[in-house]
Amino acid sequence: MSEQSAKPYLVRAICEWCADNGLTPYLAVRVNPQTRVPAAFVKNGEIVLNVSATATRKLTIDNQWIQFTARFNGSSQEVAVPIGAVIGIFAKETGYGFSFTAPDDPVAALAASTAPRDGQAMEMPKAADTSRPKRPTHLQVVK
C-alpha cells in the first residue's frame, strides 16, 4: 500500500486555522495543463487564489483536487486545481503557512538534483588516513 501525500491534509488544516482565527487563506498554484483557472490572472506560470469562505462558493478540498466557484472581475468562474499543482498555502495577514515543491518535470528535477555540480565529477570519499600509528586506548576494563 502506498503512502498518501500529506499536502491535502495540510492545505485543509491551514484553511480551517485561518477561518478559526479570522484570517484569509491564500493558495499559491503553479499552473499546468490540468489546472482550470482564469488565464488573465496567471503571472509567470503561477496564480494566487483567495480561498476564504467569503471569496468562494462550493469549496471542496479532497485528496486529489481543490474545486470552487469564485468571481473574477465580476464574472463567476469555476476553478479546479490538482493538489500536485499547489505550491503554497498561507494566511494573507500573517504570512504563516506552508510552501511545497512542485517540479515542472519530475524526471528532469530528479536528474538536476543528482547531477554533479559545475560539470565536475563527484569526488569519492577519501580513505581514512593510515599513515599514523594507532595509539593504545587509555581506557581500562574495571570489574
What's the structural blueprint in terms of helices and strands?
Blueprint: H1 7-20, E1 25-30, E2 46-50, E3 56-61, E4 65-72, E5 75-82, E6 86-91, E7 97-99, H2 106-114
Antiparallel strand pairs: 1-2, 1-6, 3-4, 4-5, 6-7
Give a verbal description of the structure.
It is a single chain. The chain has 2 helices and 7 strands, in the order H-E-E-E-E-E-E-E-H. The chain is an alpha+beta fold. It has a domain at 7-98: SH3 type barrels, CATH 2.30.30.220. The protein has a 4-stranded antiparallel β-sheet. Strands 3-4-5 form a 3-stranded antiparallel β-sheet, with helices on one face. It is elongated, with a radius of gyration of 25 Å. The termini are far apart.
Low-confidence stretches: none
* Strand composition percent: 25-35%
Mean pLDDT: 83
CATH superfamily of the domain at 7-98: SspB-like
Q: What spatial order of strands do you see in the largest sheet?
A: 2-1-6-7
Q: In angstroms, what is the radius of gyration?
A: 25 Å
Class from helix and strand fractions: alpha+beta
**Number of helical segments with 4 or more residues:** 2
- The span between the termini is 52 Å
CATH third-level topology of the domain at 7-98: SH3 type barrels
How would you describe the shape? elongated
CATH classification, class level of the domain at 7-98? Mainly Beta
Helix content: 10-25%
Tell me about the biggest sheet? Answer: 4 strands, antiparallel
Total strands: 7
Element-by-element helix/strand order: HEEEEEEEH
